[in-house]
């Protein structure tokens, strides 16, 4: 089970992992907490859908997310509490944080209770969400973290055996910064040292590295499906074009709950989020050998 804040987060952060496990026959459930109503719109013909105009972006992004899920092979997708229950809060400190339906202002136990219902139904062995800073500080990402962790706590015996937080190793960031130094769409902005970024984990804190390079094309197709959010000039396409499937298809995780399984390589990283778990006996249905 993947718990994400907005449509497109699933693809950018964990798309290769989702495609990898969907292709392997695991039951992959995506829970998206908001419709992403406050996103910028990069398709000029659709600019009138913006929150301060027709305010139709959220509904439009449901279709983008559907297309992205199809590209990733993910068939079980839900919005937390149903589509439109919680609204994109916008960036930290903006008035949109105070919207009555803003996810940032959601009652924690109520929102976690909605996720708990899905956990009880799907019984995921592994849950993936963000770290306490929401990876990069967006209020909805921080709230997704809190809601997911609270739901795991509330789930008791039905709690996933392992919980992972998305992460990027410092070395990967440093390499990316060097590559993007001259780029016009530089995701690192004016920052020149990887240690100064609000994200990036020391290699020793990473627990798992999922190699989804085989599914880099699926991830790319899913990125393209989020056209209002990710323009053709985006650094994401630059990554795909310049560095290939290695940069796009390999995703890293920190382990927040559960026991690390056996790993390999210099840092002993797991190559499977189910490492150490008994996947043979798991799943609500015999067909679902494993649930993520
Ligand atoms: Zn997001």
Automatic annotation (TrEMBL):
Reactions performed catalytically: 1D-myo-inositol 2-acetamido-2-deoxy-alpha-D-glucopyranoside + H2O = 1D-myo-inositol 2-amino-2-deoxy-alpha-D-glucopyranoside + acetate
Cofactor(s) annotated in UniProt: Zn(2+)
UniProt remark on cofactor binding: Binds 1 zinc ion per subunit.
EC number: 3.5.1.103
Keyword Hydrolase carried by entry: yes
Gene3D superfamilies for this protein: LmbE-like (3.40.50.10320)
GO-annotated biological processes: mycothiol biosynthetic process
Binding-site list for Zn(2+): 6, 9, 141
UniProt key word Zinc: yes
UniProt keywords, alphabetically: Hydrolase, Metal-binding, Zinc
PANTHER family: 1D-MYO-INOSITOL 2-ACETAMIDO-2-DEOXY-ALPHA-D-GLUCOPYRANOSIDE DEACETYLASE (PTHR12993:SF26), N-ACETYLGLUCOSAMINYL-PHOSPHATIDYLINOSITOL DE-N-ACETYLASE-RELATED (PTHR12993)
Family (UniProt): Belongs to the MshB deacetylase family.
Its biological purpose: Catalyzes the deacetylation of 1D-myo-inositol 2-acetamido-2-deoxy-alpha-D-glucopyranoside (GlcNAc-Ins) in the mycothiol biosynthesis pathway.
Name of the protein in its database record: 1D-myo-inositol 2-acetamido-2-deoxy-alpha-D-glucopyranoside deacetylase
Species name: Planosporangium mesophilum
Record lineage: Bacteria, Bacillati, Actinomycetota, Actinomycetes, Micromonosporales
């Amino acid at each position: 089970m993947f718990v994400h804040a907005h449509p497109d987060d699933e693809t950018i952060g964990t798309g290769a992992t989702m495609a990898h496990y969907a292709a392997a026959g695991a039951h992959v459930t995506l829970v998206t907490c908001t419709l992403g109503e406050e996103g910028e719109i990069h398709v000029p013909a659709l600019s009138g859908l913006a929150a301060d105009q027709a305010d139709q972006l959220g509904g439009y992004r449901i279709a983008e997310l559907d297309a992205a899920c199809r590209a990733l092979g993910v068939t079980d997708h839900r919005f937390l509490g149903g589509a439109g229950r919680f609204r994109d809060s916008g960036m930290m400190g903006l008035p949109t944080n105070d919207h009555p339906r803003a996810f940032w202002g959601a009652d924690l136990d109520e929102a976690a209770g909605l996720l708990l219902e899905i956990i009880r139904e799907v019984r995921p062995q592994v849950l993936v969400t963000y770290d306490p800073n929401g990876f990069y500080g967006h209020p909805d990402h921080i709230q997704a973290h809190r809601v997911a962790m609270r739901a795991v706590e509330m789930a008791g015996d039905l709690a996933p055996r392992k919980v992972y937080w998305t992460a990027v190793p410092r070395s990967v960031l440093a390499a990316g910064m060097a590559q993007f130094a001259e780029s016009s769409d530089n995701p690192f902005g004016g920052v020149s040292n990887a240690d100064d970024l609000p994200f990036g984990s020391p290699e020793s804190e990473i627990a798992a590295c999922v190699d989804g390079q085989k599914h880099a094309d699926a991830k790319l197709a899913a990125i393209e499906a989020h056209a209002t959010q990710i323009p053709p000039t985006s650094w994401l396409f630059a990554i795909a074009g310049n560095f290939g499937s290695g940069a796009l298809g390999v995703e890293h995780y920190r382990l927040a709950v559960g026991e690390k399984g056996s790993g390999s390589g210099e840092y002993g990283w797991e190559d499977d989020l189910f490492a150490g778990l008994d996947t043979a006996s798991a799943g609500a249905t015999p067909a679902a050998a494993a649930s993520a």
